[in-house]
Design a protein that fits this description.
519 residues, alpha+beta, 5-stranded antiparallel β-sheet, 3-stranded mixed β-sheet, globular, disordered N terminus
Length: 519
């Protein structure tokens, strides 16, 4: 199987998987071109100093869209030229030499992508972030290179950051704060973070939005024609307009830091006093549309965690898993940006969660069929009930001419870690299998399944969470942990972390009423 994969993806086939990643991430049309690059292929992304202008001047949307689209295409063209020029060597090489050459080309491409998309910021940079932890076909060196996009990219100048703070808070940062560090501690796709001390002595992190990023993102999202065409080809039954509308709404929400502050404060309040989950509190009086100030948090980054003992990695993975699913089932909210740059690790399973710009809130009606799906498949062993729940959620066309056992077989991979009790190790191979099944457009089911608008962002669990846990090779009894969280089971603690969490839940004021369950 592995050889067949290498044969079809070796010299040029990385494009297909990269394309699928772009569609999955839901990020705009120009990113599809950029997408192609992520693996190195005849049309791989490449540089493009035609980065989106973040200097604050307003470019006309059409001009900016064309500029960024052209930059992505140039990036693709450079990658394509790189692979085309080396095609004879790849063809003539064999065994380890061919693999080394392929990895070298992938590393060169990754360097190009990291440099280009890091400068471009916005939606295209988000694509590169996702590829750094989802695309298992990249070599470790190439993935390490792309991982620079997770929390370390070229920042804006100190003067420009100070200008944004002045415009938003009314005074320069050195007057608003007792201490202000002009050098950012992190720079990402929409803004960068500075350390500061408030006038009353609190250490805070101040996220400052890049000037002009709203226009940049609008330009990227405006390139939907190509995305629409590709979606129509790869998933003809999808309601493409609904998907694009949902993605546009969620991504543009990130531009309003007031919304992010409300989201973060909701999560911070929900997890207040939790023994191993921490969300920094918001400083509301120093938060506006383009500046958000929160409690400063320190900790180890994901790359450091990867060097810790397996026991520590397992504890951290359990915490992330509990955070994702307890937030979904009880807080009815999902943080839709599960990439490694959004976690700080403290040992002993304690994790700080950052960045709540892309949060999806679910109604009880939206969650009910999701709960029914997992209950019927994993607990009741009721295939027909599972099928009905898929139809109720809108994932499966009603009365699709497919046998139920085929539907269950196709979907079971998404529930594989929680269908039975017992220790299971999350692996990169499993994460890859989930992604491949998610984008298996050749399956007989492809014409009858779709992603309803309400669940577009939720699907990033499949692409993000499993990839992260696979990266950590995390082992746990995921079924027993899930039973603690599933509202239709609410099982007893199955791990020391579960016992600590149960104690926290028992002491919460009005815990019995505060925790919302889906009946």
């Amino acid at each position: 199987m592995k050889r067949e994969t290498e044969r079809t993806e070796g010299t040029y086939g990385w494009t297909g998987r990269a394309r699928k990643l772009a569609v999955a991430a839901g990020i705009g049309g120009a990113s599809i071109a950029a997408l192609t690059l992520l693996r190195g292929r005849t049309g791989r992304l490449r540089e493009g100093r035609g980065t989106g202008r973040l200097r604050g001047g307003r470019l006309r949307a059409g001009s900016l869209r064309a500029e960024r689209g052209l930059a992505a295409l140039r990036l693709a063209a450079r990658g394509g030229a790189r692979y085309a020029s080396n095609a004879p060597r790849l063809f003539a090489s064999a065994g380890e030499h061919r693999e080394a050459l392929r990895n070298d080309l992938a590393l060169q491409t990754a360097e190009d992508v990291a440099a280009t998309l890091g400068t471009m910021k916005g939606v295209l940079m988000k694509l590169g972030q996702m590829a750094s932890y989802v695309d298992d076909g990249l070599s470790p060196a190439a993935r390490r290179t792309l991982s620079r996009l997770q929390d370390s990219v070229p920042p804006m100048s100190p003067e420009l950051a100070a200008q944004v703070v002045t415009e938003e808070l009314g005074q320069p940062p050195d007057r608003i704060f007792a201490t202000w560090d002009p050098e950012p501690i992190a720079a990402a796709s929409i803004g960068q973070v500075h350390r500061a001390i408030t006038r009353d002595g609190r250490a805070v992190a101040v996220k400052v939005q890049y000037p002009g990023i709203a226009e940049t993102i609008e330009a990227d999202l405006g390139n939907v024609a190509l995305l629409r065409r590709i979606l129509k080809i790869t998933a003809p039954m999808q309601d493409v307009d609904a998907l694009v509308a949902e993605l546009r709404e969620r991504v543009t929400e990130e531009l309003d830091y007031r919304r992010e502050a409300r989201n973060q404060q909701m999560f911070a309040g929900y997890y207040a006093g939790h023994p191993f989950i921490h969300v920094p509190a918001i400083v509301a009086e120093l938060s506006t549309r383009r500046v958000v100030t929160s409690e400063l948090a320190d900790g180890a980054r994901f790359a450091e965690l990867a060097g810790w003992s397996q026991a520590e990695r397992d504890l951290a993975a359990e915490t992330i898993y509990r955070f994702v699913f307890r937030s979904l089932y009880e807080a009815h909210a999902f943080n839709g940006d599960p990439h490694p740059g959004n976690y700080l690790f403290h040992g002993g399973g304690r994790v700080t969660f950052l960045d709540f710009g892309l949060v999806k809130h679910f109604t009880t009606d939206e969650l009910r069929p999701l709960v029914a799906m997992v209950k019927h498949l994993c607990v009741d062993n009721d295939p027909e009930g599972f099928r009905r729940a898929m139809e109720d959620a809108g994932f499966l066309m009603a009365r699709a001419p497919l046998p139920t056992d085929m539907i269950v077989e196709h979907m079971a991979v998404f529930y594989d870690t929680v269908r039975e009790r017992g220790p299971r190790t999350m692996t990169g191979a499993y994460a890859s299998a989930v992604i491949r099944r998610f984008f298996d457009f050749r399956s007989p089911l492809a014409a009858y399944v779709q992603i309803p608008r309400s669940y577009v962002i939720l699907q990033r669990i499949n692409l993000g969470l499993f990839a992260l846990l696979g990266e950590l090779a995390a082992t746990a009894d995921w079924r027993c942990i899930a039973e603690e969280i599933w509202p239709f089971v609410q099982g007893p603690p199955s791990t020391p972390a579960g016992a600590a969490e149960a104690g926290w839940r028992a002491t919460r004021t009005g815990a019995g009423n505060a925790v919302r369950s889906v009946k």
